[in-house]
Every structure is written in C-alpha cells, then in structure tokens.
Amino acid sequence: MVVIQLREAKRVVRWLFCLLALRPCLHAESRWFIESGGITWSVERGQAHQDHIELSGRKVSLILTYGVREDGSPVLSRHIVFPGFRTIPNDTHASLSYEFGQDAEPRIFIDGLPVAKEVVTNVHLRGLITINSVLGNRSEVALTRAIFPSIDKPLVIEKFTFSNRSARRIKVELENTQKIVRTNPARGLTGEYDISSRVVEEQPKEIGAGESASFTLAFSARQAQEQPLRVETDLEEQARRERVEGFLSKLQLDTPDPVLNTAFAFAKIRTAESIYQTKGGLMHSPGGGAYYAAI
Questions:
Q1: Quick one: how far is CA 151 from the chain centroid?
Q2: Range name among 43-47, 54-58, 158-162, 236-240 with the lowest pLDDT average
Q3: Across the strands, what pairs with 62?
Q4: Fewer CB within 10 Å: N-end or C-end of the chain?
Q5: Residue 94 domain flag
Q6: Which one-letter DSSP state was computed for residue 264?
Q7: What is the pTM of this model?
Q8: Is there a domain that residue 291 lies in?
Q9: Cα(211)–Cα(233) distance, rounded to whole angstroms?
Q10: What is the pLDDT of residue 4?
C-alpha cells in the first residue's frame, strides 16, 4: 500500500512539473481565470478558439474537444474510449473507442421551432466541463451543458439544462436523436459491441418564467446481447462531483501563488481519475487516447 501511494505521489509531482514548465505562458494567456476552485473562460465574440481535456471513470474515458467559432457558436467533439471492451489484438492500445462529432448532437426546439442561433458565454473546468450559452436572437433562454464521465459505468453524460429568462411559458424539446454503431464481432475480444448516443428524455417540457428543465444526451457501450444501460443523470452527476471533491480535499498545496495551487489541484484530479477497472483489478494508465488498462 505504501509503495502504491508513493507511486501515485510521484505521478502527481510529474504532472505538476509539466504544468510548471508552462508557468511563464500562464502570465501571457489571459483567456482563463481562476474561479470557484476551477478555471473559467469568459468568451468574447469574434475570438475563435478550441482546446481539449480528458476526463475518466473506471470504465470510460472522454477526450472532449471544445471551443467556439467566430460567431460564438459552440464546437464539440467527443473521443470516447471504453477500456473494458477489448479489441483484437488485445494489447496496450486494444480499447474500444469512437468519435462523436457535432452530428451526434440533437437539434433544440423552442415552441416548436428549431434553434438557429447559440452563443457561448463561458466555459468552466473543475472535474466536470460546464459550458454556458444563450439561445435565439433575444437570448431569452439560457443553456448550461454539464459534461462528465460516469465513475463506474461505460457511460458519458451530457446534461442540458434550459433556463427560461423570458416572462412567458415556453416549450423546450431536445430532438430524439439516436446513433448506434455495432462493431464487427471478429474485431472484438468478446464478440460484438454496441456503441450508442441517445437522448434519454425525449418528451418536450414546458418551462415557466424563471424556471429550468433538464435533458440528457448519453454516450455508452455494451456487449451487443446486453440491455442498454439505465441512465440516472442526477445520481451520476452527484457521484462525479463527490469523487472530484474527494480528490481535491486531500493532499492540498497551499502557496501564495493561486495559479500554482490550481495547477497542482488539476494534476491531482487527472492522476487520481485515470485508474481503470480490469479483469485483474484496478490499473493506473496514462490515457491520451492510446494507453488504457494494459501494460
């Protein structure tokens, strides 16, 4: 146990040194600022930008590419890896994976009409990715996307929360978009796999003035003969937030430099979350889209 703890501590230190190497760039980079224990990017119109980050659970890893175009509209692409579903040859790189782009996103309807304009206002990172935007020409509806991996299932959740900022009731619908990919059984160590994206709550919801309502877009994988996962978004989100808080509450770095403290906290989250469930038990893996649950 002591040896494992020392190895984990060394990995945190390595991540920290990588971040420290970028320390001079942080002074020049004004895009992000520290807020609520995480970092926030307040988006300015006309400044297109993209970045990516990896978040993991024991049975899934998400590399999310996010950003905005010059008109403020969002850019999202999700490279999702399922380390527990092995492919052939069963080596270090043999994890089932799939890329879900903009085409995986369902259309948004307000009062029966598709939303043609979405402008991102800010992005926040703190173990979950939160993207805030406004919809329509009059910005009467605000949208918050919370994107995170399940802590113990082959599942990634994108939670859409709509807030009605107008003085009237509105009806919001997330179009029932589904995508299912069934892999060739010859390429899977245990046969066919199903990879899917689907809207969990497909019925329109009426939202009163000042009220909010949520929908879920779920990305998951399973053996082809298994039943689809039951998705309980609020419980999954609570579990993810509690896991992140658990990481952040231990081994804290307290220096006069808030950037250094935050860099340490982020390195700690990444180090602690990238542990995957295997047949032989838990295994720490670098991730990065290529190295999962194998030596």
A1: 12
A2: 43-47
A3: 55, 80
A4: N
A5: yes
A6: H
A7: 0.89
A8: no
A9: 19
A10: 47
Domain presence at residue 252: no
Distance, CA of 123 to CA of 216 (rounded, Å): 19
Residue type at position 285: S
The pair of structure tokens assigned to 112 is: 């029966």
> Looking at residue 27, what is its pLDDT?
46
CB 211 within 8 A of CB 112: no
Asked if pLDDT for residue 192 goes beyond 60, the answer is yes
Rounded Cα distance between 99 and 105, Å, is 12
Q: Is the separation of the CB atoms in 220 and 154 below 8 Å? A: yes
Label residue 45 by pLDDT band (50, 70, 90).
confident
3-class DSSP state of 65:
strand
Which one-letter amino acid corresponds to residue 295?
A: I
Please list the helix, strand and coil fractions of the chain in percent, rounded to the nearest 5, in that order: 20, 45, 35
Q: Which two tokens stand for residue 94?
A: 């043999």
| Distance of alpha carbon 185 from alpha carbon 189, whole angstroms | 8
C-alpha torsion 27→32→36→38, nearest 10: -90
| Within-domain flag for 165 | yes
Q: In this model, does residue 109 exceed pLDDT 80?
A: yes
Q: How far apart are CA 157 and CA 45, in angstroms?
A: 28
276: enclosing H helix or E strand: strand 275-278
Tens of pLDDT along 52-68? 999 999 999 999 999 99
| Tokens coding 106 | 């369902």
What's the pLDDT score for residue 47?
Answer: 86
Distance, CA of 293 to CA of 60 (rounded, Å)? 11
Our count of domains for the chain comes to: 1
Residue indicated by tokens 């980079």: 29
Residue 142 pLDDT > 80:
yes
Mind giving me the DSSP string for 127-175?
A: SSEEEEEEESSS--EEEEEEEEE-SSSSEEEEEEEEEE-SSS-EEEEE-
Domain around 192: 38-246
CA separation for the pair 282, 279 (Å, rounded): 8
